[in-house]
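Sanity check record (used in CI):
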Amino acid sequence: MMKITIKILVLYAFLQIMCSDAKPASLNLSLHRRMDPISLKHIFHVKSYEEVPEYEIVHIRELPKSSDEETKILHLSAFGKDIHLHLRRSEDFDERLKTTKLFTAESSKNGIRFAEVFVEDNDSGTTYQDINLMAAVSVHQGVNGELQMVSLFTLISVLMLSVSFNDIWENQQLVNDNHRDKRRAVLDKVWPEVLLLVDYDTYTEHISYNLTETQIRRYYSAFLNGVDLRFKAFTDPQISLILAGIIISKDKNAAPYLENNKLSSPDDYAFNGEKALKDLSHYLYSAKGLPEYDLALLLTELDMCMEKENECVRHTAGLAYYRGACFVRESLGRVMKIGIVEDKGGFDGIIGATHEIGHLLGSLHDGDSQLDALSGPGAESCGFEEGFLMSYAENTETMFQWSECSLEQIKYFLNTEEASCLRNEPDNKNLLGGELPGTMLSLDEQCERNWATRACANDSRVCLQLHCYYDDGECVPLLPAAEGSVCGDSQICKDGRCVKNHVINNTILTEGPICNDNSTDMY
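Expected output for A disintegrin and metalloproteinase with like protein:
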């Protein structure tokens, strides 16, 4: 068994806490019983009063601040400790959120209608972060002109007595489509523009957590940050992912590629991945009014399956067309620059998205030979069992890294004529960076988004495998915690390791966890 002690320090989100001369809150530990269910879930991430952990409401004092307003230094005392927050403004992240295009897709009598959403947020707040203490606050202008701070700062201590860890990881891909293979001069940088699609079920899940459209944009910007981080390993050429836009399906019929390929009830929470991918390729080919993109990923919380011996087997977490980036098959009315990845809203699909983009950019699974119809290096010399990003064989630090074979294959593809669209430098580069996913969702929240109740532990092992309690009390292993997640005293997850947080500096980091099956079947 595992004994867990959780303490939460609340800078209560519905209290107007001034950034100067704040008065001690005249509230006691019965505060949570005055909250409605939505507030209870938002602040404590629990569903009942009985589940609320120990918490403390504190007096906040702002120390003299710098004249440029780039930093805020706060002091508070809680749980017998003095805490100093050195909050630094994250202006670039705020600006990217304002420029990221958000579209809705809705079904109508005349087909699917796309519309750009212009979010009116006169005071979206200014984001400040303390990377070292993993604290984030948003400062707004109050109704009387005072500054109002909205935040939740969590301190968690866990005493581990015993726990067993089981290896669990599968993330498949499919596909092959032949195209020409002309080489060109070596380049030094590419900018893949990524379009993200969010299905209706995933959208409603975000809404159930009371997320606004601005917060949903923030989530997917941070999500792609985590994917982009993995591509920073490429230096010849450098790869910088660009968020081209986000499309949210506002009803089920707005995503016919999923709705038409769901299994029959009671299994209608699963869908046939191969058929959905093919239908998505036609759907995006016919879609009008979308931003330009080089590759697109559908992110869904639904359960993907693959047909095998007259059965749709649910062992697949991702699917993409090999060397599909930039590729449009005009004769068939299809785009091949697409993939599908399972993501339940807890950053669990980040590694899967990285894996599938790897396929789109020309990487096979480690251990596979190059297709007969294509030129270029294969991956025979890299063992699948070594567990790099393009295998998924092990829960080790290598699962965050590219094998030498993947590095070589992607470099080869990027220098072919087929990848020419990736070399177009965007006019307005929505470059990624700014927010750590681990600061957006705690370990408990990451578990909750995967339909569990809370994390089993928060020590260094979560960086390789997050374990979550489910309603039946079982502690189940998933995938790695989101990068930037707390894994110890002043430590956070980076590249599968628990490191002192000063190593991170201000780099945007993210990882994602999850999979629901112990199988290692491959497709």
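Residues 501 and 523 are 38 Å apart (CA to CA). If this sentence no longer matches the regenerated tokens, the check is flagged for review.
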